[in-house]
Automatic annotation (TrEMBL):
Protein name: adenylate kinase
GO cellular component: chloroplast
Native organism: Nicotiana attenuata (Coyote tobacco)
EC code: 2.7.4.3
Catalytic activity: AMP + ATP = 2 ADP
């Protein structure tokens, strides 16, 4: 981060933890500071009340004896905080890889965290599997804490995050808000149901490279790879129908909480075209964050 050696700095964070807002107490009471001073003009709906920058300040004694605040010497745009949602096999995994490659965000996938618990044989994993086998949501007691811990990780705080498959219910969204995590953008991938079932049933994983294949649309390159491909235990036609049912039951409730920051993306296009839509939205968001890095004085 750039620095301004003569000033002492205190960060202002968009994380709603009140501890992180100590610098706002330096701002004169006759001019209350809210993030709306700095929010996006073009799409205020995207960022209605968020602090957009990590900024630094000090109290400067002016000639008339009153004190005022200088903001803007050493600033860094806040990292992006993105959520991505969509039905099973809507392409979240593929798009998350493209997004993280370009934007350097930490990818946090609720389903992957749960599968890791199952693989580790933990008590949480055992319980989670019972729900996942039925295509149902795993109880909040397990999922919420797991996701919260990853979001609080130093890498997520520093680089920003891409939250995949969470929240899937209004209670999960509310929990996130209570912990102080506020997304900038909610991406919804929309794909017709008949395409989804076909994608799921043909989906295979290469356990060696982690690469996802589709037996028809993206077949393995060699016989050797083909021989070692595995299928996710819940990627059968019967289970995907249950998962789709659960998705439809919950998606509207979640969407209603994020409607101001939702971008709907046509997920039935090619993966490059889907990414182009997402990339446009993220580029715009990042520019808006960076574009506001001018000096603000109070
Ligand atoms: N946020 C969540 N809350 C509860 N259960 C979840 C959550 N995310 C994932 N799961 C469980 O893990 C399963 C697999 O999720 P995921 O890997 O995201 O794949 P998909 O989106 O194809 O269902 C879900 O069917 C559900 O049982």
């Amino acid at each position: 981060m750039a620095s301004c050696s003569s000033l002492s700095f205190t960060p202002i964070s968009s994380n709603s933890n009140p501890k992180n807002h100590s610098s706002s107490s330096l701002i004169p009471s006759h001019r209350p500071f809210t993030s709306s001073h700095l929010s996006f003009s073009k799409s205020s709906s995207l960022h209605s009340r968020q602090t957009l920058f990590r900024t630094h300040c000090r109290r400067v004694p002016p000639p008339n004896g009153a004190s005022f605040l200088v903001l803007g010497c050493a600033k860094k745009a806040e990292p992006l905080r993105i959520m991505i949602s969509g039905a099973p096999a809507s392409g979240k995994g593929t798009q998350c890889e493209l997004i993280t490659n370009k934007y350097g965000l930490v990818h946090i996938a609720a389903g992957d965290l749960l599968r890791a618990e199952i693989a580790a044989g933990s008590e949480n994993g055992k319980q989670a599997k019972e729900y996942m086998d039925k295509g149902k949501l795993v109880p909040d007691e397990i999922v919420v804490t797991m996701v919260k811990e990853r979001l609080n990780g130093p890498d997520s705080q520093e680089k920003g995050w891409l939250l995949d498959g969470y929240p899937r219910s209004s209670s999960q969204a509310i929990a996130l808000k209570e912990f102080g995590f506020q997304p900038d953008l909610f991406i919804l991938l929309e794909v017709p149901e008949e395409i989804l079932v076909e994608r799921v049933v043909g989906r295979r994983l290469d356990p060696v490279t982690g690469k996802i294949y589709h037996l028809k649309y993206s077949p393995p390159e060699t016989e050797e790879i083909a021989a070692r491909l595995t299928q996710r235990f819940d990627d059968t036609e019967e289970k995907v129908k249950l998962r789709l049912h659960t998705h439809h039951q919950n998606v509207e409730a979640v969407l209603s909480l994020y409607k101001d920051i939702t971008v709907k993306v046509n997920g039935s296009a090619s993966k490059q075209d889907v990414f182009a839509q997402i990339d446009d939205a993220l580029t715009q968001l990042r520019e808006q964050k960076q574009g506001k890095l001018g000096t603000v004085a109070a």
